[in-house]
Write a structure and sequence with these properties.
The protein is of the alpha+beta class. The chain has 11 helices and 5 strands. The two termini are 55 Å apart.
């Protein structure tokens, strides 16, 4: 049953394939006509001979749909036709059918069909060609070998080109998938950055605003100083947001020397700044202290050459933890930040003695803790956050220092 299955379905074939196969069939019939007129004393062939020849050659129209059944039909009808009229030979049709089998079917099927045809020629030639049959045998065997070899070569090349096209399609799909994954990762990274920047600065501004309201009645000068701190914090938040969004803007056409995301006429040195690192932790601590949270920073061990990505991760981790303390720690809360450098890793602990675990509960289900974990996991580390007794909250993280910059 496998041999009877079509190689391709007729409904899916374009018209040019049908036209080509019809022309090949007409050519094979035309090449077989001279054999009908051989022999001087032989009468002219009748209508029956042309009908039999047409019946033998006509299946070539569907040779690329059913290669082996077409070859078998032509071979069987050829044997029957020669038994009736020795001049009724469709050699071209047999060669074309064998070539088609070798091109479209497996090598085993092609060799089997070529062997059957060669055996038929060897058996029939002594009976039809007379004394000089071996000359015809050499010629016909050469034709069979040529059709077999050309068909196998064409089929192998066809399979190779199909594999190349399939591989190119797979690579294109993989490229599109990688691009989509990169876009999703970049969106996640930008969301984390926006959350860390906006949430921290807004928390500081809210805390300072509440302090200014409380001090406005008793100490207007103190309230004015606090409001100036609010304005400074807002400007910093706006500048950080503009820098982050400026990295995303890419104009299709830029003047020579103009950087990506830079507006025409904009100062190239003022649009972008380095991302936060460990050297800016002191500034962060001072900002949190100015918002009313008593915070200490301790660094133990000698700092190695920490990758830039790890430094940004630690900075954002401390920023997020202190922001949560500002939100939920309550008045009089104190926080401590400890960095411990060990061989090949960095331990980060942020503790506070604020209002307790209940006040921090919303942070555990929000995007802040999720962002912490994503950042730390990107560097092969882990992070834990939870209440500490008798009150307060603790965030601990372990980051590898030998993994390099993560993508």
């Amino acid at each position: 049953m496998r041999l009877l299955r079509p190689v391709e379905y007729p409904a899916n074939r374009p018209a040019r394939r049908w036209v080509f196969d019809v022309l090949v069939t007409v050519l094979a019939a035309a090449l077989s006509l001279p054999n009908l007129y051989q022999g001087g004393a032989r009468p002219w062939p009748g209508v029956a001979a042309f009908v039999v020849l047409a019946l033998m050659v006509a299946p070539l129209v569907v040779r690329r749909i059913w290669p082996i059944p077409v070859f078998g039909w032509i071979l069987v009808t050829q044997i029957a036709a020669v038994s009736w009229d020795r001049h009724l030979i469709a050699g071209a049709a047999l060669v074309i059918a064998l070539y088609t089998v070798a091109r479209l079917q497996s090598r085993r099927d092609a060799l089997a069909c070529a062997g059957v045809l060669e055996l038929t020629v060897v058996t029939a030639l002594p009976l039809l060609a007379g004394a000089g049959w071996w000359h015809d045998l050499i010629f016909l065997s050469g034709l069979i070998a040529a059709a077999l070899g050309l068909g196998l070569y064409t089929g192998t090349r066809r399979a190779y080109l199909a594999e190349l096209r399939d591989r190119a399609d797979r690579l294109e799909r993989e490229r599109d998938q990688q691009a989509a994954l990169a876009v999703a990762a970049e969106r996640t990274r930008i969301a984390r950055e926006m959350h860390d920047i906006v949430a921290h600065h807004l928390t500081v501004m809210i805390t300072l605003s509440e302090a200014a309201i409380a001090a406005s009645a008793s100490s207007p000068e103190r309230a004015n100083d606090v409001m100036r701190s609010v304005a400074d914090t807002g400007r910093r938040a706006l500048a950080d947001t503009r820098r982050l969004l400026g990295v995303l803007r890419q104009r299709p056409s830029q003047d020579p020397g103009q950087g990506p995301g830079q507006d025409p006429g904009q100062d190239p040195g003022g649009s972008l700044q380095p991302v936060p690192d460990l050297t800016q932790l002191d500034t962060l601590i001072e900002q949190v202290r100015s918002a009313g949270l008593d915070t200490t920073l301790e660094i133990h061990g000698q700092a190695p050459d920490v990758p830039a990505g790890v430094q940004l991760t630690v900075y954002r981790l401390v920023q997020e933890a202190l922001t949560n303390t500002l939100k939920h720690g309550g008045p009089g809360a104190r926080a401590s930040v400890r960095l411990r450098y060990l061989p090949g890793e960095l331990l980060v602990d942020i503790d506070d003695d604020g209002a307790g675990a209940a006040a921090h509960e919303p942070a555990g289900i929000g995007s802040g803790l999720l962002g912490m974990r994503e950042r730390v996991h990107a560097y092969g580390g882990d992070v834990q956050a939870g209440p500490r007794g008798p009150s307060g909250w603790k965030v601990s993280a372990r980051l590898r220092l030998d993994s390099g910059d993560a993508p």
